[in-house]
């Protein structure tokens, strides 16, 4: 169970929450792709707001969404799973409805719509990860999380392409896109709700074999070479693990997601004087690589500890940043193709990072505090995504060395911090007679056959 060597699509769908939930993810991603890249354009062209006002409203929505994350974490720790995912989608339905109802020049309604969209966008990743962690365990859970990311990126890409093709229709087309997005969110919420998955907090927090599936596959001696460094001493119960180093590193790692969208277009167009086709090609290649390689690379990396893989991702990303620095030095002409080639390495680093970071959080957190751990992780992710455009543009103003050298140095420092952070060893188990014993392979096999502390479609699994 520690190492996944084969990709079985049906098993992957089951581990991800089932067919209905997979459809919900696809519909939700398609709707998001239709509107999210053009929300600023909607405010400026349809509602006739100024670009600065529109940008401030969108930023406020992101910030308020982050502020709501502790409450989302507590709700998840009370057992919410499919309800939390559906709620994150329904909140965005309300945001889209306010967009459609807003008259031209009405800042307040647009800001409120951006607020609800921001809350839903920030709450969804933690709710989705908690749901997947409830129905799957060990390396199967890692593959399921990777599959969800690949599916979401595919939906976002298709939605963005459809939206781009329809932009020739002007403001009426943007309103139509918003309406379709709202319907997509509503349909996705209904599908997610129909899964009817809820965790049992009491079962998750009890230090009994019933709660073992989340911990046992990651702590047993026969899988220790692969997973022991990832596992908190209280994977069954106890206080939340300290993740300050990882959360701080994650803020730096997450900059890689904005490199294709912010840094590369800035460098290619303003410094290398390349055609706008080059940034578009880099973005499309990034999306295609993530969709096709996220699951295979995550499965390939399952033979190593998640912490080591996360550190490796930092090294690959830092190497790609230095590659961008060298490619920029080539100047106009060969510079643009070189940047495009190096972007493939950066995307590989992004894939390795995305396949290990959330998986490491779910492995570290005790089941009863999984929601709060994921909420803290999403806080660091959201903060990094919010500040990275400003940091990237500020560094770029001081030249390529400041931009790429700064990103490479910070990422290498973060990778070394992640690699050097050792989690305590797995706890001993207490036998009925009061003696201690370490988990063994038999316990692992029993745990894999036992219940997961969750109810699917209202039924409690048999022990």
TrEMBL record:
Q: Specify whether Chloroplast is a keyword of the entry.
A: no
Q: What keywords does the record list, in alphabetical order?
A: Cell membrane, Membrane, Transmembrane, Transmembrane helix, Transport
Compartments where found: Cell membrane
The protein depicted here goes by the name MFS transporter
TM ranges are: 21-43, 49-72, 176-195, 247-268, 280-301, 308-330, 336-365, 377-395, 401-420
Q: Which Pfam family would be a valid example here?
A: MFS_1
Where are the residues of the annotated region Disordered?
206-235
| Membrane protein topology class | Multi-pass membrane protein
What broad taxonomic lineage does this protein's source fall under? Bacteria, Bacillati, Actinomycetota, Actinomycetes, Streptosporangiales
In this entry, which stretches build a coiled coil? none
Gene3D superfamilies documented for this protein = MFS general substrate transporter like domains
